[in-house]
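#onboarding

Welcome to the new folks! Below is a worked example of what a typical request in this channel looks like: someone posts a single protein sequence, and someone else replies with the predicted structure as tokens. Don't worry about understanding the tokens yet, we'll cover that in week two.

Example request:
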Amino acid sequence: MYVILVYDISIDKKGSRVLNRVFKTCKKYLTHVQKSVFEGELTPAKLKELEQELQKYIREDLDSVLIFKNTNKKWLKKEYLGIDTSEMVSNFF
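Example response:
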């Protein structure tokens, strides 16, 4: 399954710690594209594992994680506006 994950962590007293833990967790499973965006191929079991691990850190009243899922990774083209990060590893075509 092809996954794009985007998160938004509220920066308050504990926000930096949450942000660091969420980033490290996402990096274990997916490729870091930019700031709070990750992408990659995961099995349904690995995706469930990622979701459960993130659930430990996400504060439901302050933070959010958005996960786009598709069985075909060729469903969209990547286009850059501003800084071109094409030298980064990516699965978009």
